[in-house]
Write a structure and sequence with these properties.
The chain has about 300 residues and is an alpha+beta fold. The protein has helices at about 5-10, 20-35, 55-65, 95-100, 125-140, 155-170, 190-200, 205-250, 260-270, 280-285, 290-305, and strands spanning about 35-40, 45-50, 70-75, 85-90, 140, 150-155, 175-180, 185. The protein has 2 domains: about 5-200, Roll (Endonuclease I-creI); about 225-305, no CATH class.
Length: about 300
């Protein structure tokens, strides 16, 4: 199961906080992944098509619980993608027109609603329930072992901006991006993704995200130390090679035999241990010498050859 599917499944099992939260969740489901068909004056059919069992289960359960309406349920299997496709329909029936107004799909005059009616999200808990429903219906949460990303795909800019506004009311910055045939409400910050999932009750998913972030932190620290060590080794190898070149130049110019004792000892040490850093080279001296002491001998050798 993908991380998105786990989040959706967890959210679909959250109990309502107040008596109107279920309506808010159902309204989000209807708006985000529902299609309204109009057969004539006052004759409607609302259809939700989804590949997610959590969406189908929540849609059917809340429709019966909140609206007391009849639903039709069909399961189809895609031969191409080898996945199940669930089709939930609210056929034309008495009370459906009033239910569509209650869900914020239609206004009282029968016109389509662009944003989110305030009566659907009047309470703070209902606003969270609407966000929860939108995530169940059209949410995507990237596997936290990779990049942090959460988005909700919706039809219509007005609805996208309204959902972003609801998320903003709980202190989380959400952006809206236009896609080819839809709009995406998205959150990129790891902290914001975590805070949003926690706010809507996905505590198990938050723990998984925290574990992934901790693992990332450990890996990043290990990588940083390894990279630093490799960089140090590269610098040390380059410095050692330069010192060997200075020694070779001294020999070519016949200066080895006339070098001061300290420089002669350094040359012998470096030729005997061509791969050691200055710090490690100092430790094999008898008595041991500091890195600074050996570095000053290198500078003396350079100065001698350049004079």
């Amino acid at each position: 199961m993908s991380f998105t599917a786990e989040v959706r499944d967890e959210l679909s099992r959250q109990p309502p906080v107040c008596e109107f939260c279920d309506l808010a969740t159902l309204a989000a489901l209807a708006r985000v992944c529902g299609t309204l068909s109009i057969a004539g004056p006052g004759r409607y059919r609302l259809t939700v098509a989804t590949e997610t069992g959590a969406v189908a289960r929540t849609m059917i359960g809340l429709t019966h619980k909140v609206l007391k309406l009849k639903t039709e349920f069909t399961v189809r299997r895609s031969v191409l993608h080898k996945v199940r496709n669930y089709l939930i329909s609210l056929p034309d029936q008495p009370g459906l027109d009033k239910a569509l107004v209650l869900l914020g799909v239609l206004d009282r005059r029968g016109g389509l609603v662009g944003g989110i009616p305030r009566h659907v999200v009047a309470r703070p808990c209902c606003r969270l329930a609407y966000i929860r429903g939108a995530l169940i219906a059209g949410g995507f949460v990237a596997d936290p072992r990779g990049d942090f990303h959460l988005e909700i795909a919706v039809q219509g800019e007005e609805l996208a901006q309204a959902i972003a506004g609801l998320i903003g009311e709980i202190g989380i910055h959400a952006r809206v991006n236009r896609r080819k045939l839809s709009y995406a409400v998205y959150v990129k910050s790891g902290d914001d993704v975590r805070d949003l999932l926690e706010a809507v009750g996905a505590t198990r998913s938050v723990r998984a995200l925290d574990d992934a972030r901790a693992m990332k932190s450990v890996k990043n620290e290990v990588n940083r130390k390894v990279n630093a060590e490799l960089a140090n080794q590269t610098r040390s190898a380059g410095a050692a090679q330069r010192q060997l070149e200075l020694i070779a130049e001294a020999e070519a110019r016949g200066l080895r035999g006339s070098l001061p004792q300290a420089l002669e000892e350094f040359c012998d040490l470096r030729l005997a241990h061509p791969d050691l850093s200055l710090r490690d080279l100092g430790e094999v001296c008898d008595p041991p010498l500091s890195k600074s002491a050996l570095y000053h001998r290198v500078l003396r050798l350079e100065k001698l050859l350049n004079s």
